Amino acid sequence: DVTICKICRDTYTTTGLSRPHSLSCGHTLCGVCATRLLVDGEIVCPVCKQTYKYHDINKITINHEVEDIIERMTTAVSLSADSTTAITDPAAAIPKHVPTPTGPKLHYGICEEHGAYKVHYCLTHTIFICSDCVVAYHLDGGCRRFPIAKVLNDRKADLSKKIDSHMSSLQDTGTQVAMYNAMIQCTEHQIKNQMEKTELQAKLQIEKLQSEIEALTVSTSWVTENLKQQMDICQKSASKYSELIDNCKDRQNKAQFSKNNVKDIANFQELNNETQWMKSSEYKTQEWTKQVEVTLNQGFESFFTSETFANLVRCQETYGTFTHNEEQRWGRYCYEDGNILLQDFRSDKPKNEALVIDLRSLTEHVSFPRHVYMQFTNQDGTSLGRIFIKVNEEAPRQAQQIIDLCLGKTGARWAGSSEICVAYKGRPKEVLLFSKYLTIDNVYSCENILPDLEAKVEIPHKQGLVVPYNNTAGFDILTNTDSTDPLDGPPIGKVVSGLQVLEQIIQDNLVGSSPSKSQMVISESGLLIGSTCKNR
């Protein structure tokens, strides 16, 4: 029957809450059931179980077709009843009271399965159920059931507790707000007092500064006036000095005129210049020698970090003889930027116009010395030792090898003369290793030297620089004092190291003074000592 609600089984009406409402799915229910099913703005259709959102029952569409059917049926029934009653029983027209069936006051809607009111709550399954559901599904199995009135009362009590708790929290919050307001008022009062105090102090400070500025203004005016007076005095003195200078120039011109007319005076001046030059060269050499000797006493480590050594590294002038274009000349050596600057000492040419000799072409311009002392140092400036090599004048290739060693262009390799050569190998914490090789009969070749030296590294030895007792023997590096082989043993002498190495070269006349045996010391710092440097 389309005129009966499928949920509560009540007949639809055309007015009031029992009017037929049609959901979007097409199923119809009365307004009373729709009100019960509306939970949190949603209605679940009891027939197809689809969910629809409605915020108000009045928003659900009224099924006017059902209302039309009800009105037609009501009209037809009314006409039929009236006509029948009028014929059979006139008293039937009197209206009678018919009681309207009512449901329970507390329920949770109509059960979709049984059509009865949901008046029970199953705590085990957390659902509302009707009495038929209790008998059918929730009688056994340990279900805990409660009347809906008790559930609602419990929820009401729980909500009351939560409301009381929130009210208490609100009261506490109000108390804290009042306390914070009092603190804010107190802080505002303190800030106001501090601002008034600061303004007063600033005003007093400004007045003090203004008084000091006025005093400085008066003092500045006095100083300015005094300076003007002093400047006037200086200008007057300057004019007097200018007059005196003019008088001196006139007298100097007169004296120069008289001097040019006297030949003896010119000769005397030339002789005087020569004397001054000789005194200057001797003085410079003595000063340089004193500087080196002083630094030696300060210790080997401090010598390489001293200001004096820094001045000697790149531009130290050393005087001696050198050969250029088969001409024996007396001049000075100056090491700069990897070159040897050879300049005639008596030449009046500027320094940049002097003869510059590249070390790589030294044998082409200057006769290479027959005896060379070479110094090798670590990166931190500590000395590894010095080495003495005889060089045969007929072997320019060997001389070039020694120059390459000095410049660092080659590593540990064979270099020396056709008579004796000294091979070396530098290590961070080791002194140079020493060995002699006779090469006249090609007993050992260049390739044999380094492997032999590597093999000798493990041999216990006393390391140091051997200083001979005479100037002709030269230096050797001591590596093994137990060896009795004359080819491996060093020449007779004393072993020195550290500071004593530099002392022996400078002070003990190890650099020969004989012009026939020209010697020089070549160090990585660029220090060159000529053959006659010791004597001058």
Characterize the structure shown.
- With 536 residues, the chain is α+β, with helices and mostly antiparallel strands.
- Among the domains are: 20-86, 2-Layer Sandwich (Herpes Virus-1), CATH 3.30.40.10; 282-522, no CATH class.
- It has helices spanning 31-37, 64-88, 131-137, 148-260, 263-297, 300-305, 307-315, 362-365, 396-407, 446-456, 499-507, and strands at residues 20-22, 28-30, 42-44, 51-53, 61-62, 118-122, 127-130, 145-147, 317-324, 327-336, 339-344, 355-358, 371-377, 383-390, 421-422, 436-437, 464-468, 476-478, 493-496, 519-522.
- The protein has a four-stranded antiparallel beta sheet with strand order 9-10-11-12.
- The chain is rod-shaped, with a radius of gyration of 63 Å.
- The model is unreliable at 84-88, 90-101, 291-320, 332-379 and 381-536 (pLDDT under 50).
- InterPro entries: Cyclophilin-like_dom_sf, E3_ubiquitin-ligase_RING, Znf_RING, Znf_RING/FYVE/PHD, Znf_RING_CS.
- This is RING-type domain-containing protein.
- It holds the Pfam family zf-RING_5.
- Residues 5-49 form the RING-type domain.
- Keywords: Metal-binding, Zinc, Zinc-finger.
How large is the share of residues in beta strands? 15-25%
Number of helices: 11
Widest sheet: strand ordering: 9-10-11-12
Number of strands: 20
Instruction: Give the N-to-C terminal Cα separation.
Output: 144 Å
Structural class: alpha+beta
Q: Could you name the ranges where pLDDT drops below 50 across 5 or more consecutive residues?
A: 84-88, 90-101, 291-320, 332-379, 381-536
Helix content: 40-55%
InterPro entries: Cyclophilin-like_dom_sf (IPR029000), E3_ubiquitin-ligase_RING (IPR052667), Znf_RING (IPR001841), Znf_RING/FYVE/PHD (IPR013083), Znf_RING_CS (IPR017907)
Protein name: RING-type domain-containing protein
Keywords: Metal-binding, Zinc, Zinc-finger
GO molecular function: zinc ion binding
